[in-house]
Amino acid sequence: MTNDTQTAEQTDGFHLVIDALKLNGISNIYGLPGIPITDLTRMLQAEGMRVISFRHEQNAGNAAAIAGFMTGKPGICLTVSAPGFLNGLTALANATTNCFPMILISGSSEREIVDLQQGDYEEMDQLAIAKPLCKAAFRVLNAEDIGVGIARAIRSAVSGRPGGVYLDLPAKLFGQAMDAAAGKASLIKVVDPAPRQIPAPDAIKRALDLLKSAKKPLILLGKGAAYAQADADIRLLVEKSGIPYLPMSMAKGLLPDTHEQSASAARSFVLPEADVVVLVGARLNWLLSHGKGKTWGGKGHKNAGGQKFIQIDISPTEADSNVAIDAPLVGDIGSCVAALLAGMGSNWAKPPAEWTSAVTERKNKNVAKMAETLAKDPSPMNYHSSLNVVRDIVKANPDAILVNEGANALDFTRSIVDMYKPRKRLDVGTWGVMGIGMGFAVAAAVESGQPVIAIEGDSAFGFSGMEVETICRYNLPVCIVIMNNNGVYRGDEVNVTGGKDPSPLVFVKGARYDMLMQAFGGVGVQANTTAELRKAMEEAIKSRRPTLINAIIDEGAGTESGRITSLNPTSAAKKK
Fold first, then answer.
1. Domains (ranges, CATH) in the chain?
2. How big, in percent rounded to 5, are the helix, strand and coil portions of the chain?
3. I want to staple 525 with a disulfide (CB 3.0 to 4.6 A). Which of 67, 279, 392, 536 is the partner?
4. pTM over 0.85, yes/no
């Protein structure tokens, strides 16, 4: 006898979200549990996915964003509604600005209540708020559309110019039930989510013809070149052409910074002197003085800002954004570089020796000058002496990932610490935003399994410092070094009114950041000398235990706003 009352096997919104993510090879989730996604985090873990739970959504979002940069797959940040969504939104906007593929998934209030503004728990029209700050934003209302929503989010995050995507999942969606077979059939495995975009042959010829005419060519590598993971071809392009190259900060290590063609130590010389510049995944934004002005020669220089540019970018609208681009190469970086290599043939003429020798001479002079500075060992430590230790540690551990933020801590580390492998330096990126440190450090350890060294200004650390508990909870091999000079930029400023309150830029003197790590079971060390710093870092790398080193440096070390004082109206006014 057949039992007609038997029902077909069911699934629900929770499991369809999980199955859709797993189907597309996503295994790590960064987030913070709460209404309405608490059960989803439990179920994700039960289904074999790794859920890294943070203390603040912005840090989880930063982790997801940098995971996307490292892997080329969208990093996933999972948050609660309204305030949690808003906390994650800063990271989403930063990911979009930096072209990091990331998906912010947030629970939300029910549409019918939000639209009538009836005052639901954490009521907010999250989709409308997210849209201006990301590449794309989607909302799923029905369980049978979960597969489509996640597929669209993945493709949007990684195709073309990568960036942030928002996916809105109202609370009621998770409990929706449907036939399990139909649910499985509704899921989509995204095929070729970031297809190659082949450059036009005439564009390749135009670029090569311009490069052939150059007397002082320069290759400039941006973080887009690092993201492309076309490492071997990019190195071959540099070496085959013989052209000096200059890496932006997150492109350091695409070729070792010690490579003979690296012009990092001669940046202020090569930018104004170059006549043809090849931009590989780099944008002529504020970080490159918009391609004009004093940095590029400016009025009175023999070039007078008259460089010609070849720009490789996947977005055609990036060309001419600040200055004329003479030879735009539109396509994915891997395809564009491969096409350039093919067009160069086997007998490509190297740049004139007069140019390469001049670059080498200037570089060697600056390297020798820096070596003299790094050889000094003052007491208390300063940025140079402490970072000379970091420089040695990174050289001995080239697979370690360096996370870096701050003002002076960022600027000095970028110029002092050499990198040797691609995608090993992670920093504040296009916006120069502080607070990425601990989120980046967590994701770097989770995604790579390698030791992480986080060089933090004491001010920058304050934005995400509570995540040391997260680092300890997951027992991640992260060594945090705080450059402690007692304040924002420096710690010796005083209240000009003579009042009892300290200067707004000064912190508690003698703060024991190392004890914060100890409070959660990690290793905390206070380092007053370079010898103590070296010993603590070596032990941290060897043990792979969560470690925080409170490196005491001269409170008078550093300058206001670091090396971007021109962007600070007060500092600029002081110089007049």
1. 10-186 (3.40.50.970), 201-362 (3.40.50.1220), 376-575 (3.40.50.970)
2. 45, 15, 40
3. 536
4. yes
